[in-house]
Amino acid sequence: MTPSIPASRAALDATDLARAAVFAALIAVLGLPGSFPLFGGVPITAQTLGVMLAGAVLGPVVGAASVGTFLALVAVGLPLLAGGRGGLAVFAGPTAGYLVGWLVGAVVVGLIVHAGGRRPVWWRTAAGLLIGGVLVVYACGIPVQSLVLRLPLEQAALANLAFVPGDIVKVVVATLVIGALVRGYPRAFRRTWAPRASTRAGDDAPTRTAAPA
Questions:
Q1: Is 209 inside any structural domain?
Q2: Is the pLDDT of residue 171 over 90?
Q3: What CATH number corresponds to the domain at position 36?
Q4: Which of 50, 128, 142, 174 is the most exposed place for a label (fewest CB within 10 A)?
């Protein structure tokens, strides 16, 4: 008999890897509408929304695996970034820090949204998306952009204010999507939260899931 252990400690299995691949594909698809370059060549893109959803639905480990898979495909040359960009060159340009921020941000989103293995609630979801999906990405991206473009950090940070309204919209959209999944399809959260964790509507209790035998 396999003892019960926290879901976050269970080893990844084929289903987790498949889910990571699906969200990597989602991030790629969200780049198809293209991008709108702003200051310093950093584009406005819907792909950050995919990163937010990966962390919020899959949790910190599988979410990071999903974003990492996407970035690995970009690194080998697949034109998956908005605007058809790809290759190692993008990791040496002004957007490099933002790409790293996607990976770190997915982890932070997952940790906050599913803190303690608890059922996602709207306020914690919104906080996780805002902190991990926006602030962490900026914290990683702005210093690298400043360094690559040889601009004062303050000037780079001020220029990035143009991205804030769009990112807030993404946070709202992602929060609504996660809320809908919690109510309508809780199985989407597989290892991060299970419906049996709550004994009544609105319960926010932690759950423990048996590891695969």
A1: no
A2: yes
A3: 1.10.1760.20
A4: 142
Rounded mean pLDDT of the chain?
A: 85
Write out the two tokens for 61: 């480990």
pLDDT reported for residue 180: 97
Q: Which two tokens stand for residue 11?
A: 């080893």
Q: How confident is the model at residue 6 (pLDDT cuts 50, 70, 90)?
A: very low
52-61, 86-95, 193-202, range with the lowest pLDDT: 193-202
- Inter-residue long-range contacts of 43-50, CB under 8 Å, 24+ positions, other chains counted: 43/82, 43/83, 43/95, 44/163, 44/166, 45/81, 45/82, 45/83, 46/82, 46/170, 47/81, 47/82, 47/102, 48/102, 48/133, 48/137, 48/167, 48/170, 49/170, 49/173, 49/174, 50/23, 50/26
Residue owning tokens 């908005």: 82
How many Å apart are CA 192 and CA 117, to the nearest integer?
6
Strand, coil or helix: 77:
coil
Domains identified in the chain, total number: 1
pLDDT digits (tens, 9 = 90+) for 135-151: 999 999 999 999 999 99
Q: SS3 breakdown of the chain: % helix, strand, coil, rounded to 5?
A: 70, 5, 25
- What letters, b where the CB count within 10 A reaches 16 and e where it falls short, cover 159-170? bbeebeebbeeb
Specify the DSSP class assigned to residue 84.
T
| pLDDT score, position 32 | 85
Domain membership of residue 177 (yes or no) is: yes
Q: Give the residue among 119, 111, 134 at the shortest CA–CA distance from 48.
A: 134
pLDDT score, position 202: 47
